Amino acid sequence: FPITRQPESTPPTRMGILPAS
């Protein structure tokens, strides 16, 4: 999946990417 910033409704990951789920 493409590297994307997390939405405000979701806590950011340590890598700052969206989970595959």
TrEMBL record:
Residues 1-12 have a biased composition (Polar residues). It comes from the Eukaryota. Residues 1-21 are annotated as: Disordered. This is Uncharacterized protein.
